[in-house]
Write a structure and sequence with these properties.
Blueprint lengths: L3 E6 L6 H4 L8 E3 L1 H8 L9 H21 L3 E5 L5 H11 L3 E8 L3 H13 L7 H21 L2 E6 L8 E7 L2 E5 L11
Length: about 190
């Protein structure tokens, strides 16, 4: 059986950790936010740059080591940069299959409000400008995910307290299901 790279992705505040905790896939996993809190005396708030840098290095080492071992693994990411796609190419060249669950909300304002609510309860946050940059980059990179991920499920997680709604499914670069009409954030994919 081929090893799997499992990715839970989407902009901050979309509900990734709640809807699809990487610890529940039955494989080795890494959640950078949880690791940073571990190194910050259990707190997700006011993370020093040194801790973020250390966690980024540990995250990369975790992924590279799993690929070398040909061991299935799960990660969570905002999908804001090329790093996940670079890791994906490495994993695929080592014989992995890749699957992704991507979550987003109806609009950026909802993401912002959920991040603010999370921060009010001691969770991690960032400035509005930073959150906007991450959000926009993540949505843009979703198109790449459709093309490069073997099995992709995209969810709108706007309903408070409800389960995420499947709005797009793609397999091997081909869209197999798309909600009609799609959420506005998905219209460009």
């Amino acid at each position: 059986m081929r090893p799997k790279m499992i990715i839970v992705a989407g902009p901050p505040g979309g509900g990734k950790s709640t809807a699809f905790p990487v610890s529940t896939f039955g494989v080795a996993y890494f959640n950078a936010d949880d690791r940073a809190a571990d190194l910050n005396a259990g707190s997700y708030a006011a993370l020093p740059r040194a801790i973020r840098e250390r966690v980024n290095c540990e995250f990369e080492e975790f992924v590279i080591e799993r690929i070398k071992r040909r061991e299935s693994f799960a990660i969570e990411t905002t999908l804001r940069s090329d790093v996940t796609f670079e890791q994906l190419r490495l994993a695929k060249s080592a014989g992995f299959t890749a699957e992704m669950r991507y979550l987003a909300l109806q609009n950026f304002g909802m993401h912002l409000e959920r991040v603010k609510a999370r921060a009010d309860t001691g969770g991690h946050s960032a400035s509005e400008a930073t959150l906007r940059r991450i959000h926009d980059a993540s949505i843009r990179n979703l198109r790449r995910a459709v093309e490069e991920i073997d099995n992709l499920w995209v969810y709108d997680n706007s309903a408070v307290g409800g389960p995420p709604e499947l709005v797009l499914q793609a397999k091997n670069g081909r869209v197999a299901l798309r909600k009609n009409p799609p959420p506005a954030w998905l219209a460009l994919v």
